[in-house]
Every structure is written in C-alpha cells, then in structure tokens.
Amino acid sequence: MRRMSEDDEETAPTVMLGDDEPVAGVPIARVAARQHYPLPRSQLLDRAGEIEIRTPAGPTALENVLEEAETQIFPTAAALIAAVREAVGEGPVGPG
To answer: Which of 3-7, 8-12, 39-43, 55-59 shows the highest mean pLDDT?
Structure first.
C-alpha cells in the first residue's frame, strides 16, 4: 500500500472550491443512509418527504422529486439515490 508523502502534496493539483456561499438542502445520500431497507415509497414520504434535498435546480422537497418516479419499493439506499438522480439529473448544485 502506497502512502502519501509531503512531495505528493506539492505536486497534487489544487481544486478551487469557489466562494463560501452556503448550499441549501441536504445531500440525498444523507437522507438515504438514515433509512432502513427495503423501504416502501409511502413510508419514505411519511418519514422524509418534506426534507429539501440538493438538486441542480436548487433545494427541492423529496416528495416533489419522487412524484414522477414509478418505483414503489426501494430495496436499497443505492436504488433510492438512483431514482432521485434519474428524476432531477446530475450537475453542479448552486447556493440556495
């Protein structure tokens, strides 16, 4: 296993994070991680439907995102995340 040395830090590219503007909403991964699976859609909406998640269009209530999803039971957290990403797309999340 290779360890990172001080030399590696000097040659690693710098990633610019932008201005310190807060981002509204929570990551869908956090919402998904706090559930128990398999999870019926109705139970998910009862537990977390009002939570605003981060989307490329800005913070959006989970219940609004899942309105168009055809999935009735989410077998895993990955399945929930995939359904949300399919509904909202992927892209940079701006400040809320």
So the answer is: 39-43
Rounded Cα distance between 77 and 48, Å, is 14
* DSSP code at position 89: -
- What single-letter amino acid sits at 94? G
DSSP H or E stretch at residue 64: helix 62-65
Categorize the per-residue pLDDT at 11 as very low, low, confident or very high, splitting at 50, 70 and 90: low
Q: Where are the chain's structural domains?
A: 24-88
The amino acid sitting at 28 is I
Radius of gyration of the chain (CA): 17
pLDDT tens digit sequence for 29-72: 999 999 999 999 999 999 999 999 999 999 999 999 999 788 99
**What is the number of residues in the chain?**
96
Distance from C-alpha of 38 to C-alpha of 22, rounded to nearest angstrom: 33
Q: Is 12 helix (H, G, I), strand (E, B) or coil?
A: coil
Q: Could you tell me the two tokens for 48?
A: 């977390």
